[in-house]
Design the sequence.
């Protein structure tokens, strides 16, 4: 007998008692609906999470100088000063997997405006590319500084929201002058609100300025000042009395006013780290390889030697976070699956009742030539049709439910064809698994006894 | 030609430790085109014999030849095929599928036959068969919308849909009043006379048995006498073919 004829018989049998069929399949409807809703909401959550990780810099690579060591004593990561702005430019030029990158210099100092002061979490010296790397292009107010500002070490800065609030108390900071270690900076922009990062650090407690300005004017570790501190022995460092600078100064000492007005750039300017953004999270491994090649060449590191820099990405963090959401989704899915199993038991129960009720029908069908396997197939198909109908309604219900969640709660949801395919397969599977026993029982009936059944 | 031959058929039911012998060695032969009435008192084993003849059950001992084929050794599936192709059944309680139209009831055995029929072909054959039993205008009636006699005629049409050579009827008129009983019996006589279908019916009613050409009496699991009657149809079995 052809399968669609069997399906037709099954449908007819179900139509004979539509209310019961409806109630029987309700378990499957709810189960499949729950599975669909869970999967759609789960997929939406994981996409939203990926997006938010990306906005926090999931594609960002941090390149730090390697470990300096002296006489077998290692000073820890970032202690050697081997990265230069030129390295950053080379990376941008030669690594196709890199979208953008910025050199970074960090300072920590007191910021003063009028009678108010604040020590921000970080004062970053960088280039305008930093905003792009961090996906922070949209400013709340004003404008970002330019590459020309970087070139000229202009004293301009952009404030994070926290600073703007702490120092200006609601007044627009744009155009105002603030002082960082007695050097005045003009505020030209305010960053948009970013909130805490995944470690809980306030990302808005920050000042961005051209790296040249921070490096040469604020941290002041240019060659000239380094030399001058070595030769000025009237300060606290009494060791310089014991061990005076071996070499006499070639040039006359510069006053502090001269130093601030005309900082002497060093030829080999080192930066604290480089931040680079890969084109996509898939290209991160490629980007790491390219950067490592470029830097090895530039730093003249032979293949057998260890690198004098290290590259870190957010992959681990991303993996942890997505594992968490996957875990949650799977947990909810397991609960939904349980309701499917409960629905399956309902199907089995009703199929058993149906087999008992239709014992005479089974006997009759056998008397007119149905074999055991025809009866088995008929009841199995009936259970599967029941489950698939329930599954279809469940898909509609689950989809509707997740759309409702999206509209009412504003949660991100994502329709997934995989979820629908799974639901169809699972409901057919439930039909086969839980329909098998009743169908098998029906197929084993003795035609005479079945015909005589009251 | 002998359509059915039984040789020493025995049937013993096993009820726990006690064995209940119901048929104690039945031998008979039924030729093609016969209209046989199986009679006997209640509990004599008529239905048991009928079930064996209808290949629904297997004898405990003995041989059963149907159209030259020994059937008592066939597997359940082979017997199902045989029932589908060669045997028709009519029951006392009609056994129609409820909430299923007459035409679908009649077409039901076709879904288990080996030949693959299109649904329109199936309907055509079922409608034709209903026309033969005089229900051409009741195709889409449900059993609940039909009288007892009409229901039994639907059951007859269903039994004949695969054109079997033999029709078995176990107390076909047991649930009918005398007028509709007459209707059904006339139907049997007509089918027997016009189509040469061999009909074997069980009855305990002498009036019903009077319609048969041959009466077989069973008493206590054994055949008592095997006598031809002078029923209302004067035709002999030889002429019916
Ligand atoms: N499945 C069974 N198990 C045990 N005994 C049975 C079974 N079927 C029938 N019998 C017995 O066989 C005898 C004959 O029954 P049956 O053939 O139905 O009689 P009837 O001539 O009235 O149709 C009865 O005594 C009945 O109790
Ligand atoms: Mg009986």
Sequence:
């Amino acid at each position: 007998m052809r399968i669609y004829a069997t399906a037709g018989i099954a449908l007819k049998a179900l139509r004979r008692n539509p209310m019961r069929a409806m109630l029987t399949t309700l378990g499957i409807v709810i189960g499949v609906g729950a599975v669909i809703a869970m999967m759609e909401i789960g997929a939406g959550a994981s996409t939203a999470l990926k997006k938010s990780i990306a906005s926090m810099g999931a594609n960002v690579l941090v390149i730090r100088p390697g470990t300096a060591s002296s006489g077998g004593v290692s000073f820890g990561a970032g202690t050697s000063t081997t990265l230069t702005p030129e390295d950053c430019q080379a990376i941008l030029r030669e690594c196709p997997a890199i979208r953008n990158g910025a050199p970074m210099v960090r300072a920590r100092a007191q910021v003063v405006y009028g009678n108010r002061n604040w020590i921000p979490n970080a004062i970053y010296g960088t280039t305008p590319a930093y905003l792009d790397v961090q996906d922070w292009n949209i400013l709340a107010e004003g404008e970002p500084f330019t590459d020309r500002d970087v070139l000229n070490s202009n004293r301009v800065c952009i404030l994070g929201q926290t600073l703007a609030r702490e120092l200006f108390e609601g007044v627009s900071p744009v155009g105002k002058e603030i002082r960082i270690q007695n050097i005045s900076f003009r505020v030209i922009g305010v960053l948009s609100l970013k909130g805490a990062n995944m470690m809980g650090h306030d990302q808005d407690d920050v000042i961005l300025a051209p790296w040249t300005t921070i490096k040469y004017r604020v941290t002041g570790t240019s060659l000239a000042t380094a030399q001058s501190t070595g030769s000025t022995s009237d300060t606290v460092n009494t060791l310089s009395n014991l061990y005076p600078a071996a070499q006499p100064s070639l040039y006359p000492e510069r006053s502090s006013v001269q130093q601030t007005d005309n900082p002497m750039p060093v030829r080999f300017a080192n930066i604290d780290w480089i931040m680079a953004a890969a084109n996509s999270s898939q290209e991160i491994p490629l980007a790491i390889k390219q950067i490592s090649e470029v830097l090895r060449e530039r730093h003249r590191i032979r293949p057998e030697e260890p690198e004098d820099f290290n590259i870190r990405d957010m992959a681990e963090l991303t993996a942890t976070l997505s594992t968490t959401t996957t875990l949650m989704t799977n947990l909810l899915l397991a609960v939904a699956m349980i309701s499917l199993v409960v629905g399956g038991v309902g199907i089995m129960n009703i199929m058993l009742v149906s087999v008992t009720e239709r014992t005479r029908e089974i006997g009759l069908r056998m008397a007119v030539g149905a074999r055991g396997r025809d009866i088995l197939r008929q009841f199995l198909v009936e259970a599967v049709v029941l489950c698939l109908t329930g599954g279809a309604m469940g898909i509609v219900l689950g989809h509707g439910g997740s759309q409702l969640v999206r509209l009412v709660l504003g949660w991100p949801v994502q329709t997934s064809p995989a979820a629908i395919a799974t639901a169809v397969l699972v409901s057919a599977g439930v039909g086969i698994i839980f329909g098998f026993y009743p169908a098998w029982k029906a197929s084993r009936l003795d035609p005479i006894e079945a015909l005589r059944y009251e | 030609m002998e359509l059915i031959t039984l040789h020493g058929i025995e049937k013993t039911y096993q009820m726990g430790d006690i064995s209940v012998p119901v048929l104690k060695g039945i031998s008979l032969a039924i030729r093609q085109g016969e209209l046989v009435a199986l009679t006997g008192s209640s509990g004599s084993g008529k239905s048991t014999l009928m079930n064996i003849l209808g290949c629904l059950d297997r004898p405990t001992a003995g041989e059963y030849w149907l159209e030259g084929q020994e059937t008592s050794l066939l597997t359940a599936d082979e017997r199902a095929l045989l029932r589908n192709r060669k045997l028709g059944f009519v029951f006392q309680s009609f056994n129609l599928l409820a909430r299923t139209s007459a035409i679908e009831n009649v077409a039901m055995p076709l879904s288990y036959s080996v030949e693959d029929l299109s649904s329109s072909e199936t309907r055509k054959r079922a409608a034709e068969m209903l026309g033969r039993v005089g229900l051409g205008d009741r195709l889409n009636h449900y059993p609940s919308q039909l009288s007892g006699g009409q229901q039994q005629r639907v059951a007859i049409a269903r039994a004949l849909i695969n054109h079997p050579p033999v029709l078995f009827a176990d107390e076909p008129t047991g649930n009918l009043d005398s007028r509709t009983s007459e209707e059904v019996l006339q139907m049997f006589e007509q089918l027997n006379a016009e189509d040469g279908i061999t009909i074997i019916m069980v009855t305990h009613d002498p009036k019903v048995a009077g319609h048969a050409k041959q009466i077989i009496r069973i008493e206590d699991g054994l055949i008592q006498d095997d006598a031809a009657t002078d029923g209302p149809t004067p035709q002999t079995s030889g002429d019916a073919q």
Summary: The CA atoms of residues 3 and 32 of chain B lie 5 Å apart. Chain B touches chain A at residues 51, 54, 56-57, 76-77, 80-81, 83-85, 89, 91, 95, 97-100, 104, 108-109, 111-113, 116, 119, 158-159, 162 (CB under 8 Å). The two ends of chain B are 10 Å apart (CA to CA).
